Structures are given as structure tokens and as C-alpha cells.
């Protein structure tokens, strides 16, 4: 079973667990179960829109060919489920989705029609699956509550059928940090703005002629809403 398939199964399990907790919340809305209420009060769900801006990397493959891997900027989505025990002790699970195209250009090499590319653009559906630690310092900044998060997981790169050059899907280990502000609008609803950065090795889709063993990163500023239970 591939890493990508395992990641999909983990994500499915996380959302099934979240759905079960949501159903339990509704079922217990009129009951008086202090233990359950305490755990549900620690949960929140956030849905953010985000920009995705990835650093270009340049390297040399096994044939001695130097090229630059360029990733197009795009928009995406971030879904986060958090469980906060205390201001400095909390945990989160993240899922991100975006679609962008990567190209592999030989720097400084051109023809009469333009730059030379090793391979045409590779369009990907890209998803991150990660878990992390989150802290909510008990201080206000501009009337909002700050938070800091750090964690790790896996990013799955899945070339599309129409624009993926028939390349293989691939997963890369991923590390991230995030910082932001959250403003409570009501006891069960708020808004969240954050800056996020994820680090991973540039994908090669299992093709040795695309392998340059370079680390890259994506900057992911985001804004969205939060539901508190």
C-alpha cells in the first residue's frame, strides 16, 4: 500500500471521528453529562481559505542536467480540528488542499521560442495531512487571541489525469509552523487569521531524471471562520 493511500485512510479516520463527535454533541445538547460537555468544549473546527506560494529550487539530476523546479502560486483550503486542554497545551489535526502546476526549466537555456523545459507542466492535486501542538497564550493582541502551532505530517502530490503527464503520485514528509490571531464573535463562532509555513522535499514523482534532492517550502497565509463546541 502506498504512503498516499495510507494518508487517505488516516484522513478518512480523522473525519469519521470528528463526525462521530459532532453527532454526540447534538445528541447530548439537552442532557447534563459534565464529562462529555468538558471534552466537547475543548474542540473547535476551523475552515480557512489560504494562498500558497512555494519557493523555486534548482539542482542537478543524475544525468548532470541542471534545472529549476518552479511551482505556480495558487489558492487553497485549510481545515483544522483542535483540542485545547489549557492555554499552553493543545493539539490539532490539519488537512490542506490546493491545485497547482510545477515546471522544470533549464536556467539560462533558451531557444528561439523561449526557455527549454525538461518536462511540460505537471498539474497536481496537493494535500497535506498533519498533526501538531498548539498554544494559546492568555494575552490579547488588538482585541484578538494569539496562537502558535508546530507539527509534522505528510504532503501528497497527485498529478491530475488531464495535466499530470501520466506521472505517479508521491508523498513527502512535511513540517510546519503557524502563528495567528483568533477573534470570538459569539460563544460558538469566531474568525481566524494566520501565517503558516510548511517545509518538504521537492517532489520528483518517482522519476530519477526529476530528482534533485532539494528542500523547499510553501508560505500559506490564511483567513477563515471557527466553530467552537
Q: Strands, helices and their partners?
A:
Elements: H1 3-27, H2 34-41, E1 43-54, E2 57-60, E3 66-71, E4 74-86, E5 89-111, E6 114-135, E7 145-159, E8 170-186, E9 189-201, E10 215-219, E11 222-228
How do the SSEs run, as a string of H and E? HHEEEEEEEEEEE
- pLDDT below 50 for ≥5 consecutive residues: which ranges? 26-31
Strand content: over 45%
**Rg, Cα atoms, Å:** 21 Å
What best-fitting shape do the alpha-carbon axes yield? elongated
Q: Multimeric state of these chains?
A: single chain
Shape-level CATH architecture: Beta Barrel
The amount of helix comes to 10-25%
Q: Mind telling me the CATH class?
A: Mainly Beta
Helix/strand class: mainly beta
Strand tally is 11
Number of helices: 2
The total domain count is 1
| Measured distance between first and last alpha carbons | 36 Å
The residue-averaged pLDDT reads 86
For the largest beta-sheet, the strand count, sense and barrel status come to: 11 strands, antiparallel
What do we call the CATH topology?
Porin
Tell me about this structure.
Strands 1, 2, 3, 4, 5, 6, 7, 8, 9, 10 and 11 form an eleven-stranded antiparallel sheet that branches. The chain is elongated. The chain has one domain (3-228): Porin (Beta Barrel). By secondary structure, the chain is mostly beta strands. It contains two helices and eleven strands. Strand 5 and strand 6 form a beta hairpin.
In short:
With 229 residues, the chain is mainly beta.
Amino acid at each position: 500500500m502506498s504512503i498516499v493511500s495510507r494518508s487517505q485512510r488516516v484522513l478518512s479516520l480523522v473525519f469519521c471521528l470528528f463526525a462521530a463527535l459532532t453527532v454526540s454533541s447534538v445528541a447530548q445538547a439537552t442532557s447534563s453529562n459534565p464529562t462529555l460537555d468538558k471534552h466537547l468544549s475543548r474542540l473547535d473546527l476551523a475552515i480557512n481559505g489560504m494562498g500558497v506560494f512555494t519557493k523555486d529550487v534548482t539542482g542537478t539530476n543524475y544525468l548532470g542536467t541542471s534545472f529549476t523546479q518552479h511551482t505556480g502560486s495558487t489558492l487553497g483550503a485549510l481545515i483544522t480540528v483542535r483540542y485545547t486542554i489549557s492555554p499552553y497545551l493543545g493539539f490539532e489535526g490539519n488537512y490542506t488542499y490546493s491545485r497547482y502546476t510545477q515546471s522544470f526549466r533549464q536556467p539560462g537555456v533558451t531557444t528561439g521560442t523561449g526557455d527549454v523545459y525538461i518536462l511540460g507542466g505537471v498539474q497536481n492535486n496537493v494535500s497535506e495531512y498533519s498533526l501538531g501542538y498548539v498554544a494559546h497564550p492568555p494575552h490579547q493582541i488588538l482585541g484578538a487571541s494569539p496562537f502558535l502551532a508546530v507539527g509534522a505530517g505528510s504532503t501528497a502530490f497527485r498529478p491530475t489525469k488531464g495535466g499530470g503527464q501520466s506521472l505517479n503520485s508521491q508523498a513527502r514528509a512535511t513540517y510546519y509552523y503557524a502563528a495567528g490571531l483568533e477573534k470570538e464573535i459569539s460563544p460558538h463562532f469566531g474568525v481566524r487569521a494566520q501565517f503558516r509555513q510548511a517545509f518538504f522535499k521537492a517532489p520528483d514523482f518517482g522519476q530519477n531524471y526529476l530528482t534533485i534532492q532539494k528542500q523547499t517550502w510553501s508560505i500559506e497565509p490564511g483567513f477563515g471562520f471557527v466553530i467552537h463546541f
